[in-house]
Amino acid sequence: MSERSDRLSVFKTYKLYVGGKFPRSESGRVYEVTDSKGKWLANAPQSSRKDARDAVVAARKAFGGWSGATAYNRGQILYRIAEMLEGRRDQFVREVAEAEGLSKSKAAAVVDAAVDRWVWYAGWTDKIAQIVGGANPVAGPFFNLSTPEPTGVVTVLAPQESSFLGLVSVLAPVIAAGNTAVVVASAESPLPALSLGEVLATSDLPGGVVNILSGRTAEIAAPLASHQDVNGIDLTGADAELAKELEIAAADNLKRVSRPQAVDGDGDWSTDPGTRRLTAFLETKTVWHPTGALGASGSSY
Amino acid sequence: MASAFEYAPAPESRSVVDIAPSYGLFIDGEFTDAADGQVFKTVSPSSEEVLSEVARAGTADVDRAVQAARRAFEKWSALPGSERAKYLFRIARIIQERSRELAVLETLDNGKPIKETRDADLPLVAAHFFYYAGWADKLDHAGYGANPRPLGVAGQIIPWNFPLLMLAWKIAPALATGNTVVLKPAETTPLSALFFADICRQAGLPKGVVNILTGYGDAGSALVEHPDVNKIAFTGSTAVGKAIARQIAGTGKKATLELGGKGANIVFDDAPVDQAVEGIVTGIFFNQGQVCCAGSRLLVQESIEDELLDSLKRRLSTLRLGDPLDKNTDIGAINSQEQLSRITALVETGEAEGADRWSAPCELPSAGYWFAPTLFTGVTQAHTVARDEIFGPVLSVLSFRTPDEAVAKANNSQYGLSAGIWTEKGSRILAVANKLRAGVVWANTFNKFDPTSPFGGYKESGFGREGGRHGLEGYLDV
Fold first, then answer.
1. B292 falls within a domain
2. Would you place residue A1 in the very low, low, confident or very high pLDDT band (cuts 50, 70, 90)?
3. Could you tell me if residue B453 is inside a domain?
């Protein structure tokens, strides 16, 4: 089929991704999203405080199931996300090129790196406990084992510049560790993030594990930072002033805070991500149990 | 015992698997005949039907395969870990896709029940590749220092009791760490490894990274001897393990040996009897007892011995022995005539030495290799059936009075692979586990496996660990 130049294309209505569904903002608001040259791309939902709260409810509801799934199962699902993303490669190359003003080949490299990042974190789900957990040789007749567990519901402010690889790089570790997430997409370039919702929805990822909001970062982040049912916040997408404000609000229920890192500001998301983002939203649980005694004899062999 | 319910046959379809009349060796990405043209037949142990004819590797073929693996090593080991990871993820996914086919194939070639290949072997095989795929780009985090290097060419020799699972245990960590492999499956179960070669093709794995040599012990020995092999991984008998240890003495070859066992399954008087009985059955009758970590010695506290044995015999009488492809079958065929003869001889020795034999009343099929679930009571620690690995559906029952005595008896073995503890008391589980000289201790469960969990033995059950983070060490120059 050759493309007819006179055929009118069908636009996509970009919607939020909350609780496994694709709602519009309850506020009914949208804002104009343009490419780097100012050309109109789409109208994105401008999320409200209510949208943010709804997303937290969805994330909380999904937490029991997701954190209770086996690490192997979570790994399988993260790998499935990579598979689905690879299949939509062309779509994301176009969206990332438009969003970030990249050439097609550079955008392709970004999307490939994002696919590989899902694969990287798919492999971590059942290994992180073997890196940061373990038996502790306490001086007494006790079995003593430390195990990492997810913190809970985590708000993720995705980076403003790297609308896709940056987004995946901050989101994947949060859910790989077993948390559920409320993601605030890049304000200027939210479209790749909103499209990612379509990938997540077809990857066996339970609804509510990832919730994606678009809009004005400060407007959405403020209620999330002060929300008493949010356990952690990644401030990557906030500037210094906003980050400080949100960190103060987050102190109310002692949210785990991941501050914007100097390296994040460089905009180079292609480097080895290490484990920092995985451990940022993990708790360590230590279990003691007496080992009893068999008497002095036992066996010397 | 008369059974209240009769089962209608529920056979799994064979049509899902297409076995070719003959197979070559898989060397450098191609199927090829043995240099001297030798072949051997593989039969289905439940019917003695010839399934296929496969090439029998000789010394020249071993050399060809090792050279192919050596040539492939430079590029494979230089690939970024993330790229090696993606090859392994592909393999894991293709195994998942083809798992029913592989389960039926494995049941045909090995004789074990489809219930086991379908629900245990194959899911574990896929999971093992999935797990080690994830390590390929994370070796810096594995605790062996920065940028740990592979060893080179790994020679891997696997047994017939879990053909594809043992292949996965060997190949997945080897490839993840950047080694290339030459693998020899057992002569009685060559087929699933050859099907795995086809999976490597589908995954686009570079040629020479995996080479499969079907053959006998002479090919295995030549592989161990080959000067250009850097690592030997062997699962099999303790006698052959010792021979390998001697063969590689004075060379730079690193070895992992996963050998025999005589696992003690210790049941205390407070254990829930029904659960313990199920655990004892799983421990010794899973895979017809042809399991190196089988709980082949039951140590039962004296006060509950009679009650437990009554329950156990009642349960054994309900096990269904027969067509391995039937979904209701619990006990399949013994893998070979040779193994059946060995089991029979050891059981005769047990009777001759004065232990009391009891076998479940079940009809054995006329064709194939079969042995009824059997237990010995009146066994002492000096009896052959309490000391030697039978590798069959034969349980030796001993009793004890105190936890100390249980531990002393459990540890009174040349082996130290596995053990089981059954008690409601957590502190007793941990106290006993602390004293057991065994690489894997199961409490209130038995024969559980997971790719994240290291497996391997103490003492003459071998050395090195397979599975988990620990499983990487055997394939790294650390």
1. yes
2. very low
3. no
- Is A123's CB within 8 Å of B86's CB? no
**Structural domains of chain B, count:** 2
Any idea which residue has 């290994």 for tokens? A127
User: Do B272 and B246 reside in the same domain of the chain?
Assistant: no
pLDDT of residue A268: 84
Q: Backbone phi, then psi, for B44, in 5-degree steps?
A: -85, 120
Q: Burial-class residue B424 by CB neighbours within 10 Å (0-12, 13-18, 19+).
A: exposed
pLDDT of residue B333: 98
Could you say which of B137, B431, B437 has the minimum Cβ distance to residue A120?
B137
| CB-defined contacts A:B, below 8 A | 84
The pLDDT tens digits for A108-123 are 999 999 999 999 999 9
pLDDT for the residue numbered A293: 79
Helix (H, G, I), strand (E, B) or coil at B186: coil
Both B138 and B249 in a single domain?
Answer: yes
**CB of A140 less than 8 A from some CB of B:** no
Q: Is residue A155 part of a domain?
A: yes
Q: Are residues B270 and B254 in the same domain?
A: no
Q: Are residues B193 and B270 in the same domain?
A: no
Rounded to the nearest angstrom, the minimum Cα separation between B69 and chain A is: 26
* β pairing state of B462-463 and B254-258: antiparallel
Instruction: Check CB contact under 8 Å for A299 and B431.
Output: no
CA dist list (Å): B423 to A142, A287, B282, B313, B445: 18, 20, 17, 21, 11
Round the average pLDDT of chain A to a whole number and report it.
95
So which residues of B are the catalytic ones? 258, 292
Say if residue B114 is in the same domain as residue B81: yes
**Tokens standing for B463?**
């050395």
* A142 contacts A290 by C-beta, under 8 angstroms: yes
Total structural domains within chain A: 1
Q: Could you give the CA distance from residue B409 to residue B391 in angstroms, rounded to a whole number?
A: 20
CATH number, domain of A57, equals 3.40.605.10
Q: Of B82, B134, B404, which has the smallest distance from its Cβ to A298's Cβ?
A: B404
Token pair 């990249």 in the structure block, residue = A102
What local confidence, expressed as pLDDT, does residue A222 receive? Answer: 98
Helical spans, DSSP H, in chain A? 49-68, 71-87, 89-100, 104-122, 128-132, 165-176, 191-201, 217-226, 240-250, 262-265, 276-279
Q: Give the confidence band of A294 by pLDDT, cuts at 50, 70, 90.
A: confident
Stretch (H or E) spanning B399: strand B394-400
Q: Print the domain residue range for B433.
A: 264-443
Phi, psi for residue B206 in degrees, rounded to 5: -55, 145
DSSP letter for B119, please.
I
Q: What's the pLDDT tens digit per position in A142-166?
A: 999 999 999 999 999 999 999 999 9
Which tens digit of pLDDT belongs to each residue from A168-213? Answer: 999 999 999 999 999 999 999 999 999 999 999 999 999 999 999 9
Q: Is residue B450 part of a domain?
A: no
State how far the Cα of B142 lies from the Cα of B456, in Å rounded to an integer.
19
- ipTM comes to 0.95
CB B68 within 8 A of CB B208: yes
Owning domain of residue A149: 30-266+273-290
In order along chain B (478 residues), what is the average pLDDT of each group of 10 residues?
72 97 98 98 98 98 98 98 98 98 98 98 98 98 97 98 98 98 98 98 98 98 98 98 98 97 98 97 97 98 98 97 97 98 98 98 96 98 98 98 96 98 96 96 98 98 98 98
Of B82, B435, B451, the CB nearest to A294: B435
pLDDT at residue A300, as a whole number: 54
Q: Is residue A50 one of the residues assigned to a domain?
A: yes
Q: Assess if residue B5 is contained within a domain.
A: no
Neighbour count for residue B384 (Cβ, 10 Å):
16
pLDDT in tens, B295-305: 999 999 999 99
